[in-house]
Specification:
- The longest helix has 30 residues, at about 25-55.
- The protein has 11 helices and 8 strands.
- The protein has helices spanning about 10-20, 25-55, 85-105, 110-125, 130-145, 150-160, 160-170, 195-210, 210-225, 245-255, 285-290, and strands spanning about 60-65, 70-75, 150, 180, 185-190, 230, 265, 275.
- The protein is mostly helical and about 300 residues long.
Length: about 300
């Protein structure tokens, strides 16, 4: 014994080293003890080999139904299961369940899946019942998304019970993004979710097709907001898309109207034409802003 426990093979080694008399009974007992330990090691080794042969997948309990319909179960001794074996068992079980779930799903191409999801979303929207006022608001929103205003005259002409719907739309909390702006010839509706008030103001001027007013109002707006004079090329771009001849014609009309006497034109040092409003900006300041920037080293 060494500290109360005999080392394996101790008796045999002592006998060979010293030749001391050791009883055959003690040697026999030690041999049997060593044989038991070796048998346990060999059984453990076979268990590990079987586990490796099945890619590390060892299950603690496997339940199956026999031919007669009775359930049969086999259990593994958890007490002697190592931490790595338990981890492998749990991972293997999770992977198997995931693969079984994926295998159960039908094979659908990506484009068909997207179409199915879009159809499902559209179906949900259709199932949501809208009031007549909400339907009108949704129609205005769709047009606003396309950068289009909706005129009052078109609503009255095309929408049943238009006046009633417009009145209910103003009171409906879900329709508060729908606003109107009055132009010279029409009242226009748009959604503030998809169009800013400034852009709506420009769109109304363009829809009214009053070029002199459009030029004068935008020159005043740019001088007050930025502040900056307005180059003539500004009105050649979208959403105006006027020709230079149309702009010059509009300015000649502006000069003859009393309500637009604050709007003037000038040329900078390189001959570019600019407009400004003396109500919003001094001419000297406007000319300085219109000069091209000079960069020097």
């Amino acid at each position: 014994m060494l500290f109360g426990r005999k080392k394996p093979g101790f008796t045999e080694k002592l006998y060979k080293a010293t030749g001391a008399g050791v009883s055959s009974k003690a040697a026999s007992e030690e041999t049997e003890e060593n044989s038991t330990v070796d048998a346990a090691k060999e059984a453990k080794s076979r268990e590990i080999e079987q586990s490796n042969a099945s890619n590390g997948k060892t299950f603690s309990a496997a339940e199956e139904t026999n031919k007669t319909g009775k359930e049969a179960s086999t259990e593994v001794d958890y007490e002697h299961e190592t931490r790595e074996e338990a981890k492998d068992r749990m991972n293997a079980q999770g992977k198997r369940e995931l693969l079984e779930y994926l295998d159960s799903m039908p094979d659908v191409p990506d484009d068909e899946m997207e179409e199915a999801l879009a159809w499902e979303e559209e179906k949900k929207k259709e199932e949501q019942k809208l009031t007549p006022a909400q339907e009108l608001a949704d129609y205005i929103r769709k047009r606003t998304k396309g950068s289009q205003l909706t005129t009052l005259s078109s609503i009255l002409k095309e929408v049943p019970d238009a006046e009633k719907r417009l009145d209910e739309m103003e009171k409906d909390e879900t329709c508060q993004d729908i606003v109107s702006k009055k132009g010279e010839k029409e009242t226009y509706y748009y959604s503030q979710e998809f169009m800013s008030d400034n852009y709506a103001m420009i769109a109304v001027l363009v829809e009214d097709k009053d070029l002199p007013k459009t030029v004068a109002e935008m020159v005043r707006f740019n001088c007050k907001t930025y502040p900056a004079p307005t180059p003539i090329e500004y009105f050649e771009r979208s959403p105006y898309s006027y020709t230079k001849a149309q702009i010059e014609r509009a300015y000649s009309i502006i000069q003859g109207r009393p309500e637009y006497q604050d709007v003037h034109a000038f040329h900078n040092s390189v001959g570019a034409t600019y407009f400004f409003s003396e109500k919003e900006m001094h001419e000297k300041y406007a000319r300085s802003l219109a000069e091209p920037e000079l960069f020097t080293d």
